[in-house]
Amino acid sequence: xxxxxxxxxxxxxxxxxxxxxxxxxxxxxxxxxxxxxxxxxxxxxxxxxxxxxxxxxxxxxxxxxxxxxxxxxxxxxxxxxxxxxxxxxxxxxxxxxxxxxxxxxxxxxxxxxxxxxxxxxxxxxxxxxxxxxxxxxxxxxxxxxxxxxxxxxxxxxxxxxxxxxxxxxxxxxxxxxxxxxxxxxxxxxxxxxxxxxxxxxxxxxxxxxxxxxxxxxxxxxxxxxxxxxxxxxxxxxxxxxxxxxxxxxxxxxxxxxxxxxxxxxxxxxxxxxxxxxxxxxxxxxxxxxxxxxxx
Length: 295
Known about the structure:
By secondary structure, the protein is of the alpha+beta class. Helix content is 63%, strand content 14%. It folds into 3 domains: 97 residues; 39 residues, no CATH class; 142 residues, Butyryl-CoA Dehydrogenase, subunit A, domain 3. It is elongated, with a radius of gyration of 34 Å. The N and C termini lie close together (11 Å).
């Protein structure tokens, strides 16, 4: 399955009969889970349930709006429910007569009653549902085509970000020996300053070696490169990998932060490590912005 963005739009049109046509629109944006919202004509609850099942089978994540619009070519596209309105008016006048209250029914109130206005969907009945359901697959196919097209663009950008991240990691590795030497010299100088020259120099060197080893950034670089390799594997795999990618980028960011904390305060050549570490964090953040929109 190709990599998909969660952003897309698709619309299909159909004809129910000579006087009634429809347009079914699907609009999708990014969301942590699959969040379906329907804007359908009244009395189409059964159709909504079928649409919901189909969308859950085809989509994994995203805020999806499903809009069904009706187009009536006749002049009688909207009718009134005469039986319902007549019943309400009759009950109103009977109550007014019984309790001796003067008044007439308010037509604005009556027409706002559920079922008082017939939009055309109610009269179309099963015809509308059959016509719409016959076009849902096409709408979903168009939506996923758009999502896949954007997914390819995002994949291209993410691969470029990973190349930049690897280059920065290689640059850090190239300066690693300089960092260790700088850190070792600074520690020796500081310990001699604090403890004086009477302390065994060999003992100072042993302590310095331990501290330098703890401050080595080799482990962070190894883990970072492993995460990048795993990330590329997910790009090749495709499908529903957005959450996995986001987790890997969080881990990459953790390694970059640790690397920067271990090399903070060093001067000279070691300052280049800080620049590269900040470059890493920038590439990771830009990658996360794109991954947030992947299914």
